[in-house]
Amino acid sequence: MTPDEPQEPSWAAPSPDATPDVGHEVDPEMDATEAAPREPSEPAGSPDVQLIDDRDLSWVDKPQMSDEERERRHLRNEEIRKHVRRKRKVRTALKITAAGMAALLVLGVLWFAWTFGGLARMPAVAGQAGLYTPGTNILLVGANPDEPDATAINGSGWPHAFATSDMVMVLHLTKDKHSMFVISIPADSIVPIPGGGEGKLADAFRRGGAPLYVKTVETLTGIRMDHVMTLDMSGLREITNDVGGIVVNVPAPICDTQAGPTRLDGDQALDFMAFDADCPQIKDVERVQRQQTVLKALMAAAVDGGKLTNPFRVNKVLRATAGHLTVEHGFGYPSMVGLLFSMRHLRSSNTTFLTVPVAANAEYTVDGQDAVRLDASGDAALWNALRQDRLAAYVATNTGANVLR
Length: 405
What we know:
By secondary structure, this protein is an alpha+beta fold.
Protein backbone atom coordinates (compact mmCIF):
# COMPACT_ATOMS: atom_id res chain seq x y z
CA MET A 1 0.00 0.00 0.00
CA THR A 2 1.29 3.33 -1.03
CA PRO A 3 0.87 6.35 1.06
CA ASP A 4 -1.21 7.93 -1.64
CA GLU A 5 -3.85 5.14 -1.58
CA PRO A 6 -6.74 5.84 0.62
CA GLN A 7 -7.16 3.46 3.52
CA GLU A 8 -10.45 1.63 4.00
CA PRO A 9 -11.88 1.88 7.35
CA SER A 10 -11.72 -1.24 9.50
CA TRP A 11 -15.48 -1.57 9.60
CA ALA A 12 -15.84 -1.69 5.82
CA ALA A 13 -17.57 -4.79 4.39
CA PRO A 14 -15.17 -7.47 3.19
CA SER A 15 -14.67 -8.02 -0.43
CA PRO A 16 -16.36 -10.87 -2.13
CA ASP A 17 -13.08 -12.68 -2.60
CA ALA A 18 -12.14 -12.38 0.98
CA THR A 19 -12.05 -15.61 2.93
CA PRO A 20 -14.54 -15.53 5.78
CA ASP A 21 -13.30 -15.89 9.25
CA VAL A 22 -13.58 -19.45 10.39
CA GLY A 23 -14.85 -18.49 13.81
CA HIS A 24 -17.59 -16.29 12.36
CA GLU A 25 -19.11 -18.31 9.53
CA VAL A 26 -22.49 -17.17 8.38
CA ASP A 27 -25.10 -19.77 7.52
CA PRO A 28 -26.25 -19.03 4.04
CA GLU A 29 -29.74 -20.32 4.87
CA MET A 30 -30.04 -18.07 7.88
CA ASP A 31 -32.92 -15.68 7.67
CA ALA A 32 -31.94 -12.15 7.15
CA THR A 33 -33.64 -11.10 10.28
CA GLU A 34 -31.78 -13.72 12.24
CA ALA A 35 -28.49 -12.75 10.69
CA ALA A 36 -29.04 -9.12 11.51
CA PRO A 37 -27.32 -7.94 14.62
CA ARG A 38 -29.58 -7.78 17.66
CA GLU A 39 -30.23 -4.44 19.10
CA PRO A 40 -29.59 -4.26 22.79
CA SER A 41 -32.77 -4.65 24.86
CA GLU A 42 -34.02 -1.67 26.64
CA PRO A 43 -33.24 -1.66 30.30
CA ALA A 44 -36.17 -2.60 32.57
CA GLY A 45 -38.03 0.35 33.82
CA SER A 46 -37.79 1.18 37.45
CA PRO A 47 -40.84 -0.04 39.61
CA ASP A 48 -43.53 2.44 40.46
CA VAL A 49 -43.05 3.66 43.94
CA GLN A 50 -46.26 4.26 45.92
CA LEU A 51 -46.35 6.15 49.11
CA ILE A 52 -48.03 4.53 52.11
CA ASP A 53 -51.33 6.14 52.95
CA ASP A 54 -52.06 6.85 56.57
CA ARG A 55 -55.18 4.72 56.35
CA ASP A 56 -53.05 1.67 55.55
CA LEU A 57 -51.42 2.06 58.91
CA SER A 58 -54.69 2.10 60.82
CA TRP A 59 -54.04 -1.45 62.08
CA VAL A 60 -50.96 -0.13 63.84
CA ASP A 61 -53.07 2.15 65.99
CA LYS A 62 -55.70 -0.58 66.61
CA PRO A 63 -55.79 -1.80 70.23
CA GLN A 64 -54.53 -5.34 70.68
CA MET A 65 -57.14 -8.08 71.55
CA SER A 66 -57.00 -9.14 75.17
CA ASP A 67 -56.60 -12.73 76.23
CA GLU A 68 -60.16 -12.79 77.61
CA GLU A 69 -61.60 -11.52 74.34
CA ARG A 70 -59.50 -14.01 72.40
CA GLU A 71 -60.77 -16.81 74.65
CA ARG A 72 -64.38 -15.68 74.23
CA ARG A 73 -63.99 -15.61 70.48
CA HIS A 74 -62.45 -19.07 70.55
CA LEU A 75 -65.31 -20.43 72.65
CA ARG A 76 -67.85 -18.76 70.37
CA ASN A 77 -66.27 -20.29 67.30
CA GLU A 78 -66.15 -23.65 69.04
CA GLU A 79 -69.85 -23.41 69.87
CA ILE A 80 -70.62 -22.65 66.25
CA ARG A 81 -68.62 -25.70 65.17
CA LYS A 82 -70.45 -27.87 67.72
CA HIS A 83 -73.81 -26.55 66.53
CA VAL A 84 -72.93 -27.36 62.94
CA ARG A 85 -71.78 -30.85 63.95
CA ARG A 86 -75.00 -31.40 65.93
CA LYS A 87 -77.12 -30.35 62.98
CA ARG A 88 -75.24 -32.76 60.75
CA LYS A 89 -75.69 -35.57 63.26
CA VAL A 90 -79.41 -34.79 63.58
CA ARG A 91 -79.87 -34.78 59.83
CA THR A 92 -78.01 -38.07 59.55
CA ALA A 93 -80.05 -39.58 62.38
CA LEU A 94 -83.29 -38.38 60.78
CA LYS A 95 -82.32 -39.91 57.46
CA ILE A 96 -81.44 -43.22 59.10
CA THR A 97 -84.66 -43.17 61.16
CA ALA A 98 -86.78 -42.36 58.12
CA ALA A 99 -85.16 -45.17 56.15
CA GLY A 100 -85.66 -47.57 59.06
CA MET A 101 -89.29 -46.58 59.53
CA ALA A 102 -89.95 -46.96 55.82
CA ALA A 103 -88.39 -50.42 55.89
CA LEU A 104 -90.42 -51.39 58.96
CA LEU A 105 -93.58 -50.08 57.33
CA VAL A 106 -92.97 -52.12 54.21
CA LEU A 107 -92.19 -55.22 56.29
CA GLY A 108 -95.27 -54.61 58.44
CA VAL A 109 -97.52 -54.36 55.41
CA LEU A 110 -96.03 -57.51 53.93
CA TRP A 111 -96.38 -59.36 57.26
CA PHE A 112 -99.98 -58.23 57.71
CA ALA A 113 -100.89 -59.20 54.17
CA TRP A 114 -99.26 -62.61 54.64
CA THR A 115 -100.83 -63.22 58.06
CA PHE A 116 -104.33 -62.05 57.20
CA GLY A 117 -104.25 -62.99 53.55
CA GLY A 118 -106.61 -65.90 54.24
CA LEU A 119 -109.47 -63.63 55.28
CA ALA A 120 -112.61 -64.13 53.23
CA ARG A 121 -115.05 -61.34 52.43
CA MET A 122 -118.81 -61.09 52.33
CA PRO A 123 -121.22 -58.26 51.47
CA ALA A 124 -121.61 -55.53 54.08
CA VAL A 125 -124.81 -56.22 56.04
CA ALA A 126 -124.30 -54.46 59.40
CA GLY A 127 -126.16 -51.36 60.55
CA GLN A 128 -129.72 -51.90 59.31
CA ALA A 129 -131.75 -51.47 62.49
CA GLY A 130 -131.41 -50.41 66.11
CA LEU A 131 -129.20 -47.74 67.68
CA TYR A 132 -125.51 -47.07 67.62
CA THR A 133 -124.24 -47.45 71.16
CA PRO A 134 -121.06 -46.68 73.11
CA GLY A 135 -118.34 -49.27 72.63
CA THR A 136 -117.99 -51.73 69.77
CA ASN A 137 -120.54 -54.43 68.90
CA ILE A 138 -119.67 -57.41 66.71
CA LEU A 139 -122.00 -60.19 65.61
CA LEU A 140 -120.10 -63.48 65.38
CA VAL A 141 -121.77 -66.47 63.71
CA GLY A 142 -119.97 -69.83 63.69
CA ALA A 143 -120.33 -73.20 62.01
CA ASN A 144 -119.05 -76.32 63.79
CA PRO A 145 -117.91 -79.05 61.38
CA ASP A 146 -118.60 -81.68 64.07
CA GLU A 147 -122.31 -80.84 64.27
CA PRO A 148 -124.72 -83.36 62.71
CA ASP A 149 -126.06 -80.68 60.34
CA ALA A 150 -122.59 -79.85 59.03
CA THR A 151 -123.12 -82.10 55.99
CA ALA A 152 -126.91 -82.14 56.04
CA ILE A 153 -127.09 -78.46 55.12
CA ASN A 154 -125.64 -77.60 51.74
CA GLY A 155 -123.23 -74.76 51.21
CA SER A 156 -119.83 -73.67 52.38
CA GLY A 157 -118.09 -70.60 53.72
CA TRP A 158 -120.03 -67.77 55.28
CA PRO A 159 -123.45 -68.81 53.82
CA HIS A 160 -123.04 -72.18 55.53
CA ALA A 161 -122.31 -70.47 58.86
CA PHE A 162 -125.53 -68.44 58.62
CA ALA A 163 -127.54 -71.47 57.51
CA THR A 164 -126.40 -73.66 60.41
CA SER A 165 -125.95 -70.96 63.10
CA ASP A 166 -124.17 -73.39 65.40
CA MET A 167 -122.78 -70.44 67.37
CA VAL A 168 -124.36 -66.97 67.62
CA MET A 169 -122.63 -64.40 69.82
CA VAL A 170 -122.74 -60.64 70.27
CA LEU A 171 -119.33 -59.34 71.33
CA HIS A 172 -119.49 -56.01 73.16
CA LEU A 173 -116.19 -54.22 73.74
CA THR A 174 -116.77 -51.46 76.29
CA LYS A 175 -116.12 -47.85 75.47
CA ASP A 176 -113.01 -47.73 77.69
CA LYS A 177 -111.63 -50.87 75.93
CA HIS A 178 -110.88 -52.49 79.29
CA SER A 179 -113.46 -55.28 79.25
CA MET A 180 -115.59 -57.34 76.89
CA PHE A 181 -118.93 -59.12 77.24
CA VAL A 182 -119.76 -62.12 75.09
CA ILE A 183 -123.53 -62.68 74.90
CA SER A 184 -124.70 -65.96 73.37
CA ILE A 185 -128.03 -66.36 71.64
CA PRO A 186 -129.13 -70.01 71.35
CA ALA A 187 -129.44 -70.91 67.68
CA ASP A 188 -132.80 -72.59 68.30
CA SER A 189 -134.31 -69.42 69.80
CA ILE A 190 -137.66 -68.41 68.34
CA VAL A 191 -137.44 -64.70 67.52
CA PRO A 192 -139.51 -62.17 65.57
CA ILE A 193 -138.38 -61.88 61.95
CA PRO A 194 -138.78 -58.45 60.30
CA GLY A 195 -141.40 -58.63 57.58
CA GLY A 196 -143.75 -60.88 59.50
CA GLY A 197 -143.81 -64.05 61.53
CA GLU A 198 -141.19 -65.58 63.75
CA GLY A 199 -138.74 -68.42 63.60
CA LYS A 200 -135.11 -69.30 64.16
CA LEU A 201 -132.25 -67.20 62.88
CA ALA A 202 -131.50 -69.85 60.25
CA ASP A 203 -135.09 -69.36 59.02
CA ALA A 204 -134.39 -65.64 58.59
CA PHE A 205 -131.37 -66.50 56.46
CA ARG A 206 -133.42 -68.82 54.28
CA ARG A 207 -136.00 -66.09 53.76
CA GLY A 208 -133.80 -63.11 53.08
CA GLY A 209 -130.15 -64.14 53.21
CA ALA A 210 -127.51 -62.50 55.37
CA PRO A 211 -129.16 -59.03 55.33
CA LEU A 212 -132.38 -60.32 56.89
CA TYR A 213 -130.43 -62.50 59.33
CA VAL A 214 -128.47 -59.51 60.65
CA LYS A 215 -131.53 -57.26 60.65
CA THR A 216 -133.34 -59.86 62.78
CA VAL A 217 -130.55 -59.80 65.39
CA GLU A 218 -130.39 -56.00 65.35
CA THR A 219 -134.17 -55.78 65.78
CA LEU A 220 -134.07 -58.29 68.65
CA THR A 221 -131.29 -56.44 70.49
CA GLY A 222 -132.15 -52.88 69.43
CA ILE A 223 -128.47 -52.39 68.59
CA ARG A 224 -126.78 -51.62 65.29
CA MET A 225 -123.82 -53.91 64.80
CA ASP A 226 -120.50 -52.32 63.95
CA HIS A 227 -119.17 -55.47 62.29
CA VAL A 228 -120.41 -58.91 61.28
CA MET A 229 -118.11 -61.93 61.09
CA THR A 230 -118.51 -65.63 60.45
CA LEU A 231 -116.18 -68.31 61.76
CA ASP A 232 -115.50 -71.81 60.56
CA MET A 233 -114.84 -73.36 63.95
CA SER A 234 -112.18 -75.62 62.46
CA GLY A 235 -109.92 -72.70 63.27
CA LEU A 236 -110.56 -73.33 66.97
CA ARG A 237 -109.21 -76.83 66.49
CA GLU A 238 -105.93 -75.47 65.12
CA ILE A 239 -105.62 -72.78 67.77
CA THR A 240 -106.29 -75.26 70.57
CA ASN A 241 -103.53 -77.51 69.27
CA ASP A 242 -101.17 -74.56 68.83
CA VAL A 243 -101.45 -73.60 72.51
CA GLY A 244 -100.97 -77.21 73.65
CA GLY A 245 -104.60 -77.99 74.49
CA ILE A 246 -107.04 -76.49 76.96
CA VAL A 247 -108.41 -77.47 80.34
CA VAL A 248 -112.19 -77.20 80.83
CA ASN A 249 -114.12 -77.77 84.01
CA VAL A 250 -117.07 -80.06 83.30
CA PRO A 251 -119.69 -79.41 86.00
CA ALA A 252 -121.37 -82.81 85.76
CA PRO A 253 -120.80 -86.03 83.82
CA ILE A 254 -122.61 -85.96 80.51
CA CYS A 255 -122.48 -88.96 78.21
CA ASP A 256 -118.82 -89.85 77.74
CA THR A 257 -117.50 -86.65 79.39
CA GLN A 258 -116.45 -86.98 83.00
CA ALA A 259 -117.02 -84.25 85.57
CA GLY A 260 -114.14 -82.09 86.74
CA PRO A 261 -111.12 -80.55 85.01
CA THR A 262 -110.49 -82.23 81.66
CA ARG A 263 -107.74 -81.55 79.14
CA LEU A 264 -108.91 -81.37 75.54
CA ASP A 265 -107.04 -81.16 72.26
CA GLY A 266 -108.46 -79.50 69.16
CA ASP A 267 -110.64 -82.41 68.00
CA GLN A 268 -111.93 -83.06 71.49
CA ALA A 269 -112.79 -79.39 71.94
CA LEU A 270 -115.00 -79.41 68.82
CA ASP A 271 -116.63 -82.65 69.93
CA PHE A 272 -117.23 -81.17 73.36
CA MET A 273 -119.07 -78.18 71.85
CA ALA A 274 -121.09 -80.14 69.29
CA PHE A 275 -124.66 -81.31 69.73
CA ASP A 276 -124.63 -85.08 70.13
CA ALA A 277 -127.76 -86.81 68.89
CA ASP A 278 -126.86 -89.90 70.92
CA CYS A 279 -126.71 -87.85 74.12
CA PRO A 280 -130.20 -86.50 74.88
CA GLN A 281 -128.97 -84.42 77.82
CA ILE A 282 -127.20 -81.99 75.48
CA LYS A 283 -129.63 -79.35 74.31
CA ASP A 284 -129.12 -75.97 72.72
CA VAL A 285 -128.76 -73.99 75.97
CA GLU A 286 -126.17 -76.42 77.26
CA ARG A 287 -124.36 -76.37 73.93
CA VAL A 288 -124.07 -72.59 74.30
CA GLN A 289 -122.54 -73.03 77.74
CA ARG A 290 -120.02 -75.51 76.34
CA GLN A 291 -119.05 -73.10 73.60
CA GLN A 292 -118.44 -70.41 76.19
CA THR A 293 -116.46 -72.85 78.37
CA VAL A 294 -114.15 -73.73 75.49
CA LEU A 295 -113.63 -70.12 74.42
CA LYS A 296 -112.87 -69.00 77.97
CA ALA A 297 -110.44 -71.91 78.49
CA LEU A 298 -108.79 -71.12 75.16
CA MET A 299 -108.43 -67.49 76.16
CA ALA A 300 -106.95 -68.48 79.52
CA ALA A 301 -104.45 -70.83 77.87
CA ALA A 302 -103.41 -68.47 75.10
CA VAL A 303 -103.41 -65.07 76.80
CA ASP A 304 -103.39 -65.61 80.56
CA GLY A 305 -101.05 -68.58 80.34
CA GLY A 306 -98.46 -66.65 78.34
CA LYS A 307 -98.59 -69.08 75.42
CA LEU A 308 -98.67 -66.18 72.96
CA THR A 309 -95.43 -64.52 74.05
CA ASN A 310 -93.58 -66.25 71.23
CA PRO A 311 -94.04 -64.09 68.10
CA PHE A 312 -93.95 -67.12 65.81
CA ARG A 313 -96.74 -68.77 67.79
CA VAL A 314 -98.72 -65.53 67.76
CA ASN A 315 -98.37 -65.38 64.00
CA LYS A 316 -99.44 -69.01 63.69
CA VAL A 317 -102.54 -68.41 65.79
CA LEU A 318 -103.45 -65.28 63.83
CA ARG A 319 -103.05 -67.10 60.53
CA ALA A 320 -105.21 -69.97 61.79
CA THR A 321 -107.90 -67.50 62.84
CA ALA A 322 -107.75 -65.45 59.64
CA GLY A 323 -107.86 -68.58 57.49
CA HIS A 324 -111.28 -69.50 58.90
CA LEU A 325 -112.77 -66.02 59.35
CA THR A 326 -115.00 -64.01 57.02
CA VAL A 327 -115.47 -60.26 57.44
CA GLU A 328 -117.52 -57.68 55.61
CA HIS A 329 -116.34 -55.66 52.66
CA GLY A 330 -115.31 -52.25 53.93
CA PHE A 331 -113.79 -53.60 57.12
CA GLY A 332 -110.26 -52.83 55.98
CA TYR A 333 -106.87 -53.72 57.39
CA PRO A 334 -106.38 -50.38 59.20
CA SER A 335 -109.69 -50.89 61.04
CA MET A 336 -108.69 -54.45 61.91
CA VAL A 337 -105.37 -53.29 63.32
CA GLY A 338 -107.20 -50.64 65.36
CA LEU A 339 -109.63 -53.23 66.71
CA LEU A 340 -106.88 -55.68 67.63
CA PHE A 341 -104.93 -52.90 69.32
CA SER A 342 -107.98 -51.82 71.34
CA MET A 343 -108.42 -55.43 72.54
CA ARG A 344 -104.84 -55.76 73.80
CA HIS A 345 -105.92 -55.45 77.46
CA LEU A 346 -108.43 -58.30 77.31
CA ARG A 347 -107.92 -61.36 79.53
CA SER A 348 -110.23 -64.09 80.72
CA SER A 349 -110.57 -62.13 83.96
CA ASN A 350 -112.11 -59.07 82.27
CA THR A 351 -114.12 -61.02 79.66
CA THR A 352 -117.58 -62.05 80.78
CA PHE A 353 -119.56 -64.80 79.03
CA LEU A 354 -123.33 -64.80 79.48
CA THR A 355 -126.44 -66.07 77.72
CA VAL A 356 -129.64 -64.18 76.98
CA PRO A 357 -132.30 -64.96 79.58
CA VAL A 358 -134.56 -67.81 78.57
CA ALA A 359 -138.06 -68.58 79.85
CA ALA A 360 -138.87 -71.29 82.32
CA ASN A 361 -139.07 -74.65 80.57
CA ALA A 362 -137.48 -72.84 77.65
CA GLU A 363 -136.66 -75.86 75.52
CA TYR A 364 -139.53 -77.40 73.64
CA THR A 365 -140.32 -78.94 70.29
CA VAL A 366 -142.00 -77.38 67.27
CA ASP A 367 -142.89 -79.71 64.41
CA GLY A 368 -140.37 -82.21 65.71
CA GLN A 369 -137.60 -79.59 65.88
CA ASP A 370 -135.95 -78.35 69.07
CA ALA A 371 -136.76 -74.74 69.96
CA VAL A 372 -135.92 -72.31 72.75
CA ARG A 373 -138.31 -69.76 74.22
CA LEU A 374 -136.68 -66.52 75.35
CA ASP A 375 -137.63 -64.39 78.36
CA ALA A 376 -138.91 -61.15 76.85
CA SER A 377 -138.63 -58.99 80.00
CA GLY A 378 -135.25 -60.41 80.98
CA ASP A 379 -133.92 -59.90 77.45
CA ALA A 380 -135.14 -56.29 77.42
CA ALA A 381 -133.16 -55.51 80.60
CA LEU A 382 -130.04 -57.12 79.16
CA TRP A 383 -130.18 -55.29 75.83
CA ASN A 384 -130.98 -52.00 77.55
CA ALA A 385 -127.85 -52.38 79.71
CA LEU A 386 -125.81 -53.09 76.58
CA ARG A 387 -127.15 -50.02 74.82
CA GLN A 388 -126.02 -47.91 77.78
CA ASP A 389 -122.64 -49.67 78.06
CA ARG A 390 -123.60 -50.73 81.61
CA LEU A 391 -123.34 -54.50 81.38
CA ALA A 392 -121.03 -54.70 84.39
CA ALA A 393 -123.74 -53.14 86.57
CA TYR A 394 -126.33 -55.45 85.01
CA VAL A 395 -124.32 -58.57 85.87
CA ALA A 396 -123.68 -57.31 89.41
CA THR A 397 -127.33 -56.54 90.15
CA ASN A 398 -129.06 -59.43 88.32
CA THR A 399 -128.41 -62.54 90.32
CA GLY A 400 -130.47 -64.51 87.85
CA ALA A 401 -128.28 -63.55 84.91
CA ASN A 402 -127.02 -66.64 83.12
CA VAL A 403 -123.30 -65.87 83.52
CA LEU A 404 -120.56 -68.42 82.98
CA ARG A 405 -118.65 -68.67 86.25
